Amino acid sequence: MLTLKLEKRLVPSRSMAYLVPVISFVLALLFGAVLLTLAGANPWRTYQAMLEGAFGTPTQWAAGDFYNLTETLVKAIPLMLCGLGVSIAFRMLFWNIGAEGQLVMGGFAAGGTALWLPQLAPELPGWLYLPLMLVVGMLAGAIWALVPALLKAYLRVNEIITTLMLNYIAILWLQHLYYGPWKDPQGYGFPGTAQFVEAAWLPRLIGRVHWGLIFALVAAFVIWLVLGRTRWGYEIRLIGENVSAARYAGVNIARNIVLVAALSGGLAGLAGMAEVAGISHRLQQGLAVGYGFTAIIVAWLARLNPFGVILVSVLLAALLVGGDQIQIVMRLPASMALVLQGAILFFMLGGNIFTRYRLRLTR
Amino acid sequence: MPEQAPNLVRSPQPAVDMRGIVKRFPGVVACDHVNLTVGAGEIMALLGENGAGKSTLMSVLCGLYRPDAGEIWLYRNGSPQRADIRSPRDAIHLGIGMVHQHFMLVPNQTVAENIILGLERPRFLLNMHQVEREVLDLSRRYRLQVDPSAYIWQLSVGEQQRVEILKLLYRGADVLILDEPTAVLTPQEAEELGRVMRVMAGEGKAVIFITHKLDEVMAFSDRVTVLRDGKNVATLVTAQTTKTELARLMVGREVLFRVERQLVDLSCAATGQTALLSVQNVCAQNDRGLPALRNVSLEVCSGQILGIAGVAGNGQRELAEVVTGLRPVSSGRVLVRGQDLTNQSPARFIQAGVSHVPGDRLGMGLAGNLPVSDNLIMKAYRQPPLSSGPFLVSRAIGQFVQRLIRAFQVATPSPETPVRMLSGGNLQKTILAREITAGQEHDLTLLVAVHPTRGLDVGATEAVQRTLLEQRAQGAGILLISEDLDELLVLSDRIAVMFEGQIVASVDAREADVAQLGLMMAGGRGAHEQEADKDGALC
Hints:
The complex is a heterodimer. Chain A has helices spanning 14-38, 43-55, 58-62, 67-91, 99-120, 129-155, 159-179, 212-229, 231-241, 243-248, 253-280, 291-301, 306-329, 334-351, 353-356; strands at residues 3-8, 204-206, 209-210, 357-362. By secondary structure, chain A is mostly helical. In chain B, the strands form five sheets. In chain B, strands 6-7-8-3-9-10 form a six-stranded mixed beta sheet, with helices on both faces.
């Protein structure tokens, strides 16, 4: 009898590491094509619409219109920052799935600063606003991650539960603020705070793409440097590979959990700060739309590589924006876009197994 | 010494008869034509050192392994039947059950739920109350006190063991195998277990328990079968033998191979040698919070190898962890080079110059997926020249790694190869290279080596032993923990024997006698006994 057997590879395959994502992506598109056909849509035209929706068309580019591309980048920025934060925590096997809450707290703290500073310190020069918001936003994200980190480091509380639960506290807290005490009195009843003073607006580069992109690129480079070139990064890698060996080598595990969690939360907090200061210029609905959760997928697809996170974030953002487009252009239901996104992620993540295992036909 | 022929003593009413069982694993014959007969209503002790083939033989009986040769005959209803046991399921159908060292229970389920787990009856409706009543009846009958509705996670290890035994009794097992059942128990619980085994035997069950502790053999068993190197050595009626005889049978070899070795004076102070490590009246607990070290005191002098002999699980691992800062002590002091480091962090111990070759190479000594180079710098990455400020200096690291690979002849395709790809011998060389190099930062190296040659081939073993002796010649002090008595005798200057967390004897290696050491390792303590117990009470 012929049987298929999954065998572990001695060494993770190098060529497969690059081939698998490509093959998975193609298979996912084929699978999606079947579904689209069943739904009565032309798969080719749908994919074209997604692609154009995410990146624009050559005609648009020629006319100097990069709207679609820049919108994709706008969505990619929070994914990059949260993805970087999540991936460094995952490196050390600290399962931070609370990037969403940390992002929200970063946005809350930065937004709060922008809203109340003009009243509290009217003489403060305008150029100080953004640096202050950046620091406060990162600190708030870091503190939100420190709670689970301290609980894990000193009381061995499972961080998966605590980071997840703190998300909802953060989201509801922010909602409470812009529906209640911080609601704009001149807002015609719309939930949301008043607009920030202009000094608190993050400068834009092109379209709505703001400085957050630069923050993300710098953060990726710094994390790459820390992981590969510093003692601290070495300790993080050692803990991630073998906690017992790290302890044996004299690495302080508890301190590293706390530090890495703070960095991880700080980056998510920075994403929140960049969102409110760069895009919405106020606190309102739309800050907590799941970037922090998608960042977990980003981190895995990027195999925790900081530059991989940047690349994957753009691709996933393209998927989000392109998905919106097919609703408009192809008049497909919103759920169809989600199905396509799900299929692509399913194949990409599932395909990963072939880098570490191989299929063998045995008798 | 005349050895008795296997199975000279036969029980009148056999329950199980294993004949000529052979089980080979790549490179070893774990069981070599082993015979074992156990009678109904009898408690049989299966005695032997680690690796003697006891567990393998019992795994064959309970269906985990299939024998390469040999037959198993079962006597049910008086008539012998040849049994074909292909799986644990077959075994339990035939009334054979085993309690493993690692319990197989579901923590989030109750005792009763665990007991019926995997059973085919009842087929449809499950009356939990009835099951609980049945379990309660069984537990009363066999004096296995446990609450059937309690969750496993609420139970102590001893209680969990009772659940495992109840599981077998509930399935109607007539032959019960217990694999080192007392290893996880407190002395009181062990005594209680002895009474339970007696009750089970009284009900006509055949009870086999695997052990290497002589006291238990004497206290609990009717007969004892001794295995050594996978072969039958003897089967004796317990009442007609002594601990001394059993120890000799178990350890066996009386002629020993000794390499040439300069003999050094034993006391640190007398010769003006420095005490590199000094452990003073240390008590410590194991992972489960039970006492693992009881009032242990020892000194490792420069230019000396202090060997620690003992059967696994008698506190050796905890001792190694205590003197490297990996385990806190509950009382007593640990001094390194005269500096009190009691309950300091592992980093402080490394800083003070304690090199450590751990027993679990890939579990603790190395990070398997990281390259050889990352593994070689584990102890040196904090200081210049390998690091400068917060940064690692890759050029210095490259040179350092190349130097170590060459000096210790680590056979690796490249420094970037994941270390787990290397052979056992090269894994150990990698660790030794790192630890000895770290020791060279100090005038005299202090090395704690745990099972340094376990699992290595002859060539690698020799290389490791030679390295240890070279270090000793250069003035290093070495604490050598090993289960291999031959190795201890070849390398050590002094040998201390650990039993149940105490040092029950310390002898000059020149005068050590294997049979005597074996007896002490197995808990036959003689003159030291009372004194040691008194010391242990201090914890």
